[in-house]
Amino acid sequence: MKNLTAFSVAVLLIFMSCDKTETIPGFVGKPIHLAPVIETSEDTLACTYAWSFSDKPDGSNMDILSFQPNSRSFNISFVPDIPGEYTITYNIVGPDGKAKDKLDLICEVTEDTTSAPTQEDEYTLSEEALKAPLPVYEDTKTTTTKPAYSPPPPPKQTYTRPRSDRGKNIPRISGNYTIQISSWKTYTGAERAVSLLSSLGLDLYIQKAHFNETGENWYRVRTGNFDSRAAARQTMNDLKAKLPYEQLWLDFVREDQ
């Protein structure tokens, strides 16, 4: 533990000592701690931050949900899943909405042969979920509104929002509302999504939905049970700031199938 703490401090000192891109060493299964290069206190005044993976080794499942505590924090960390070179980009946006700084940080990750790996994630996946491949994503819509800055595009998502003429066969509980975060063709895919969202402290649940129109089963990742649409919409709007790349939407609470 003492060696790990010293390693994390050394990484932070590298960032604070210079403004050029440095190669950051790291080990598979151990957190790498990162922070922006700050020259003056004005760089942090009313600013927002955005971290993303602009490049990663083939086969890595890292995405913006891998950052702890989240991709919008000043200081972040992530636990690399395979060896190789990871390029992490951070953007600093001022209170006026204009980009103040952008930098790529390169992390060179290798296998740690000095000690056995430890399980640090509080969420324990089933053996089936650990062996399951990451589901293939599929975009269902695009947007023409551009943000104040242009971060690297997020991984494609397998989000499929039911069309208005689909799902009428699924019984609903009138007067109760919930927020849908994503929908998956396999239960293991939905379970993987829940594990990635566990750090947000949400009351998450997975619900199976069968669509008579197509004969398909989908596994929906949802959160909350609200008595009014207004309360559900307010929570959904707050959640969009934490999950900017998810296509959140409101639905009635549905009966289990």
Descriptive account of the structure:
The protein is of the alpha+beta class. It folds into 2 domains: 2-118, Immunoglobulins (Immunoglobulin-like, Sandwich); 121-257, 2-Layer Sandwich (Alpha-Beta Plaits), CATH 3.30.70. It contains 4 helices and 10 strands. The chain has helices spanning 2-17, 127-131, 187-197, 229-242, and strands at residues 23-27, 32-34, 48-55, 76-78, 84-93, 99-110, 172-184, 204-211, 216-226, 249-254. The chain has a 4-stranded mixed sheet, with no helix packed on it. It has a 4-stranded antiparallel sheet with strand order 8-9-7-10. A two-stranded antiparallel sheet has the order 2-4. A hairpin with a 5-residue loop joins strand 5 (84-93) and strand 6 (99-110). The longest helix has 16 residues, at 2-17. The radius of gyration is 20 Å and the shape is flat.
Silhouette: flat
Total strand segments: 10
Any idea how many domains?
2
What is the strand arrangement across the widest sheet? Answer: 1-6-5-3
Q: What fraction of residues sit in β-strands?
A: 25-35%
What are the segments in which pLDDT stays under 50 over at least 5 consecutive residues?
5-20, 116-122, 137-143, 159-164
Helical/strand content category: alpha+beta
Brief overview, please?
The chain is α+β, with helices and mostly antiparallel strands and 257 residues long. It is built from 4 helices and 10 strands; from the N terminus they run αββββββαβαββαβ.
Indicate the topology.
Layout: H1 2-17, E1 23-27, E2 32-34, E3 48-55, E4 76-78, E5 84-93, E6 99-110, H2 127-131, E7 172-184, H3 187-197, E8 204-211, E9 216-226, H4 229-242, E10 249-254
Parallel strand pairs: 1-6
Antiparallel strand pairs: 2-4, 3-5, 5-6, 7-9, 7-10, 8-9
